[in-house]
Amino acid sequence: MKNVRRDYPRTVACNGTTVELSLLSSRDAADLKAFVATLPEHDLLFLSRDITHPKVIEAWIAAIPEGRIKSIVARESGRIVGCTAIALHELSWSRHVGELRVLVSPAMRGKGLGRLLIQECFVQALELGLTKLCVQMTVDQRAAISGFESIGFRAEALFRNHVKDREGKLHDLAVLSHDVVEVQSRMHAFGVSDILSS
């Protein structure tokens, strides 16, 4: 397998908007809280924990130097407009699988930022030696599901009434997955390996 590596921070063009990508660190805690406050509540059902609670964000950031989470933030004019997390489970039987989370601010949707962040996560997954990425969301998040499916994620499981929102409403949870090495092979086959190596 080709060795891949991505250096940060790096600046990318996102449909006419300049975005800086960097690895999440403890210095980003306040900005991350501000970003989370801009998200529609229903978006938070992507996540297994409620990141509007400060202790959850603190635990998220604390897990990074411990190697349990790898995260990227995207900034536009200094403000966080998107972020990712790959949760790792090194001591489990599924240590080859990363749990992917991607969040994009409403103002940046439809500009390709979500797809760009997912591509960055594939590079991170290869760096980490992962072979599979999984993402979960409620089944009514059709646009998000369609976006993931458009880049090769496929439905793998459905959990009935698995998520309860703040109003007590129950939601079905869909789990989608993607073979990481397959992405690398396909990109090389189509001559776009620079996406992974640049």
In short:
By secondary structure, the chain is of the alpha+beta class. The protein contains six helices and eight strands, in the order E-E-H-H-E-E-E-H-E-H-E-E-H-H. The protein is globular.
Task: Going across the biggest sheet, name each strand in turn.
Answer: 1-2-3-4-5-6-8-7
Shape: globular
CATH topology-level fold name = Aminopeptidase
Major sheet? 8 strands, mixed
Please characterize this protein's 3D structure.
Mean pLDDT is 86; it is low at 194-198. The longest helix has 15 residues, at 113-127. The protein is globular. The protein has helices at residues 29-37, 54-63, 113-127, 142-150, 180-189, 194-197; strands at residues 10-14, 17-23, 69-76, 79-87, 97-104, 132-138, 154-164, 170-179. By secondary structure, it is an alpha+beta fold. Strands 1-2-3-4-5-6-8-7 form an eight-stranded mixed β-sheet, sandwiched between helices. It has a single domain (10-197), classed as Gcn5-related N-acetyltransferase (GNAT) (Aminopeptidase).
